[in-house]
Amino acid sequence: MEYAMPLVDDLLTEMKAYLWFCSLDAASGFWAVMMTRRARKMEAFVCALGHFEWLRMPFGLKNAPMIYQRMIDNALWGFVQPKGG
Q1: Which of 21, 24, 39, 44 could form a disulfide with 35 if both were Cys (CB 3.0 to 4.6 A apart)?
Q2: Digits of tens for pLDDT over the chain (85 positions)?
């Protein structure tokens, strides 16, 4: 899976073109992403208390940041437009 995270320098350069911007507090954002049935099986783990499967995406997975960023980009599609665009 390939989904490049935006570079901070690119974001700062593009800010000149926007009329306004806001920051979204997504402290528990990864927990909003449901795991697919296949992903739950792949990320299952066993400990002394038993066998467990994640129902929501934990922060530590390799592709979690890319999946989360893509979800945010899709959710904000249409709201992010430069001046005159």
Answers
A1: 39
A2: 566 777 888 878 877 777 777 777 777 778 888 999 999 999 999 999 999 999 999 888 888 888 888 888 888 887 766 555 4
